[in-house]
Amino acid sequence: MNSFNFQNNNLYAExxxxxxxxxxxxxxxxxxxxxxxxxxxxxxxxxxxxxxHLICYAVKANSNIAVxxxxxxxxxxxxxxxxxxxxxVIAAGGEPRKCVFSGVGKTEKSIQKALEYxxxxxxxxxxxxxxxxxxVSSSLNMIAPIxxxxxxxxxxxxxxxxxxxLNENKFGVCPDIALSMYKKAALSENLKVCGLDYHIGSQIxxxxxxxxxxxxxxxxxxxxxxxxxxxxxxxxxxxxxxSYDGEKTINIEDYLNYVTxxxxxMKILVEPGRSIVGNAGIFVTKxxxxxxxDIKSFAIVDGAMNDLIRPSLYxxxxxxxxxxxxxxxxxxxxxxxxxxxxxxxxxxxxxxxTLEKGDYIAILTTGAYGFVLSSNYNSRPRVSExxxxxxxxSLVRKRETIESLFENExxxxxxxN
Length: 417
Ligand SMILES: *Cc1c(COP(=O)(O)O)cnc(C)c1O
Description:
417 residues, alpha/beta, Lyase, Ornithine Decarboxylase, Chain A, domain 1, TIM Barrel, 9-stranded mixed β-sheet, 20 strands, globular, binds pyridoxal-5'-phosphate
């Protein structure tokens, strides 16, 4: 399914023309499709069949509370990496008892709050963290449900910045250390060993690294069994790649069927982020100026790297299409660049398009790691986000104002002047 389609050369978000959305909400703009989000989540659910499972949407991929609320209504769980994300989930109607808490640097305060809210499980990433969770939970006279994040040392064959499953990465612990941590945890009155987890990276398009990681995890679970430590759930992380340029990616149903077949009576947790929201969002930006020289054609647009950093940060590819493809204007191979004062400020390069000033370009598949990574660099207010469902649409985050950019700043009152 694809919620963003052309009808008579006009791009539609579900049943709403994107031109209408730009007229209503201005530019630049993120547009999300509720139907697509639901479809993507339901694909995971369907693939699990009758097998006991919990889908924990990785909040960091897109944390708008409207997105979280749509997923909460489907019964989704959440993978959170900070107290802020936990509070967001709760504000959006999500249930703490369906949340797993990942991340290498959980603060004492966030651990305490998460315990009090009664989250499903802590995904522990180091021995120090295990000690910290045990001490917080014992001081509260509580029992913390825990899982240890194992680093299976597999190469996810993805961009180095989004690869997490190698020993050289900061995430998780190696199987030997995990074993000794589990033994220690099993002796504690304030910790309850529940699961084992891993997450090997993001935008993975081949299933083999996932299967290799699964093997490593199952080996460790067997070893733990022989030590009388029972793992009730296996959390296989996220990382399922989306198709940015028509490329083939993981077949979710085949992948999950394989996992559940090997899981016996273990409950399976999965933490998809990108594969739930990636293709459910587009970024719309207006062509402000066209500029050509002997070797290059630049379309200067009102959106920039501060709004959508993926192309600059990972040199990632996103399709760029005109929302109203009228074939009027200058033909060329355009670099679509923003107004930010950095040469890395581009959204797309070498795109064959016919452009004129005032056209709107949609950068596709930007629902994940788009708005959430935006900043105010160059004192640019963050853009609006809009949700569409069939014929209806509404603002789910208003455009920031210029005044709001410096409302938390103070002049320095120096005694000497
Ligand atoms: C980022 C992250 C995810 C989600 O990854 P996607 O590639 O967006 O599916 C899941 N689990 C953990 C621990 C993460 O850090």
